[in-house]
Amino acid sequence: RKWKRERERESFARKRLSSVRKRKGFRSRAEVCKRMSASVKTMSAKKCLGGVSLPQRCAVARTAKVGRATGLKVRAAGAGGFVPDMPRRNIMNLLLVAAAGLPGATMLGAYAFFFVPKGGGGGGAGLTAKDALGNDVTEQGWLASHQVGDHSLTQGLKGDPTYLVVNDEGKIENFGINAVCTHLGCVVPWNVPEKKFKCPCHGSQYNAQGRVIRGPAPLSLALAHADISEDNKVVFTPWTETDFRTGLDPWWK
């Protein structure tokens, strides 16, 4: 009985609701959908709306309708952009890498070149030694102001600072010692109390003949011949034979 009463109440409520809708002009969902589809068909049939032609809109509407009916994927009609193929993409990637790698390689090469020891005692004809004032160095004038064991700077080959050494006999040694450190190119001073060369930059040390005895310098100081010319001047010439300190070929050759 309860079930019958509920069914009667529901049917009564539906009838009353439908009568109210008809009285106020309401439509059912099916009628609304039917009216909307009819309006869409009417719009698609028109070639213009308000004086504006609608060919693209009609074409898109038809394409969308066909796609929904058949279940096929529909591409946008206006997407006519060019998509590059894989070889062209690879070429563009290579160009990008080259454009970025060239400056990097240049900077890396310059950074590596910074650690290459500067050459000293290079090739070329003989060069007269110059003192601090730019005057030619003579044997007589040099020995008059420099004592035994003295290591003093002059201007040598390629303009490099070069030490002239006065030996125990009171004569100028037949070799000059390039003062450019083989680590990073600092000028190495002569330490009188310790009687050796000590680099102030990173602590490299060389003995009285310029042979390396402590790093980080990897090589000994370069050599140059120091000969006395006929007019009593000290002349530097390149050292190309074996390094008497190490027994090896000269690295600065």
The parts where pLDDT drops under 50 for at least 5 residues are: 57-61, 63-67, 69-74, 119-124
Structural class, by secondary structure, is: alpha+beta
Report the sheet with the most strands, covering strand number, pairing sense and barrel closure: 6 strands, antiparallel
Measured between the Cα atoms of the first and last residue, the distance is 122 Å
Shape: rod-shaped
Counted by DSSP, the helix tally is 5
* Rg (C-alpha, Å): 49 Å
Strand arrangement in the largest pleated sheet: 3-12-11-6-5-4
Helix share, percent = 25-40%
Overall mean pLDDT score? 78
Q: Give a count of the beta strands, DSSP E runs of length 2 or more.
A: 12
Portion in strands: 15-25%
Order of helices and strands: HHEEHHEHEEEEEEEEE
Describe this structure in words.
By secondary structure, the protein is α+β, with helices and mostly antiparallel strands. 36% of the residues lie in helices and 18% in strands. The chain contains five helices and twelve strands. A six-stranded antiparallel β-sheet has the order 3-12-11-6-5-4, with no helix packed on it. The chain is rod-shaped. The chain starts with a helix and ends in a 15-residue tail after the last strand. Mean pLDDT is 78; it is low at 57-61, 63-67, 69-74 and 119-124.
